[in-house]
Design goal:
single chain; 128 residues; 2 helices; rod-shaped
Length: 128
């Protein structure tokens, strides 16, 4: 069986005709028949795949390209959302700081008003 397989494969690789072991001088092996059928099917499938390989490659390339386009569109949407969130967070932070500054200025202005009013009431009463 192994000798037949080796000889068969070498002849096929050398583009020669394979020997016919169905003749009466050879011992009939059932395993040989199933192996030849399997080997032939594998070679036919390989030839078929080789023939369609370029088409399949292009098809898969376009499929990957389509996936990449969708992925990048979603990635850009996520990036835009992140930028918008970042800008809103910065604006909120700046607004809080300005609000605190204005609130502090308001307290200081009201306190200054109280002091100036008290001084304005006290100063005329003071005689030198």
């Amino acid at each position: 069986m192994w000798a037949r397989m080796t000889k068969h494969k070498l002849l096929i690789k050398g583009n020669k005709t394979a020997p016919n072991y169905d003749q009466p001088q050879f011992i009939h092996l059932h395993e040989w028949d199933s192996w030849v059928v399997t080997y032939t099917k594998r070679r036919e499938l390989k030839a078929h795949v080789t023939k369609l390989g370029a088409k399949i490659f292009v098809k898969n390339k376009f499929r990957r390209w389509r996936y990449q386009a969708r992925f990048m569109a979603a990635q850009n949407e996520r990036l835009a959302l992140a930028v918008q969130h970042h800008n809103n967070a910065k604006l909120l932070q700046v607004t809080k700081v300005w609000g605190g500054y204005c609130q502090g200025r308001g307290k200081a202005a009201r306190r200054r008003e109280v002091y100036l009013t008290a001084w304005a009431n006290w100063a005329p009463r003071k005689r030198r």
